């Protein structure tokens, strides 16, 4: 637990450093994630979400996501699916993004109550800017190392857990005119309410470059509240 506490403390310090940057912005994220597990290790997820920029960098995003997960081994899972984003800006043209992605998730190692996971994925991103007929395409590669620490005993149906992660982004050169993320770190608190419902609140620090402000590095904090709902048979 000491190592976990040090990790979370480090993430909080990094968030504090990010908030001290001059080019700084906040975002609020709200997500609802229904999903269902089928036979043969297959699960289907459907995400619905809303994001909003706070302060001078005001913008709004509505998005829909669908994905399929296939557990091919005890610790290996294949993932993929489409995503659709609508970005609304008060001072700029709105943007539509259609995204396809494919990934592999490896759940290893598991040390007591601490579970680690490695997710690598590839994204094909198609952009269209309204009122300008401008469109573009970009590839992006992502790697995320995450961990989850269960705080309740194995026999409890309701318990808290601590999620944390670090993620790196590698963007293609031909997508230099779009929104680029370079790295994220996240820490939070989750609560398993029942077999169906899980609540999670996280705070994420990110370094990025907004495509409307070319060459300007930005830093931000994202506050996310997510509800996951398992659809049972």
Describe this protein with a few key phrases:
12 strands, mainly beta, 8% helix, 233 residues, Lipocalin, 1 helix
Question: How would you briefly describe this protein structure?
Answer:
The chain is built from 1 helix and 12 strands, in the order H-E-E-E-E-E-E-E-E-E-E-E-E.
Major beta sheet, strand line-up: 1-2-3-4-5-7-8-9-10-11-12
- Could you say what the CATH topology is called? Lipocalin
| Integer-rounded radius of gyration | 18 Å
Q: Give the helix proportion (percent range).
A: under 10%
Could you tell me the number of beta strands?
A: 12
Low-confidence stretches: none
- Approximate shape: globular
Describe this structure in words.
It is a single chain. This protein has 233 residues and is mostly beta strands. It has one domain: Lipocalin, CATH 2.40.128. 8% of the residues lie in helices and 65% in strands. It is built from 1 helix and 12 strands, in the order H-E-E-E-E-E-E-E-E-E-E-E-E. An 11-stranded mixed β-barrel has the order 1-2-3-4-5-7-8-9-10-11-12. Strand 8 (134-150) and strand 9 form a beta hairpin. The longest helix is centred in the first third of the chain and has 18 residues, at 2-19. It is globular. The termini are far apart. The model has no long low-confidence stretch (mean pLDDT 87).
Secondary structure topology:
Blueprint: H1 2-19, E1 24-37, E2 42-54, E3 60-71, E4 76-88, E5 95-106, E6 110-111, E7 114-129, E8 134-150, E9 159-171, E10 180-192, E11 197-209, E12 217-230
Parallel strand pairs: 1-12
Antiparallel strand pairs: 1-2, 2-3, 3-4, 4-5, 5-7, 6-7, 7-8, 8-9, 9-10, 10-11, 11-12
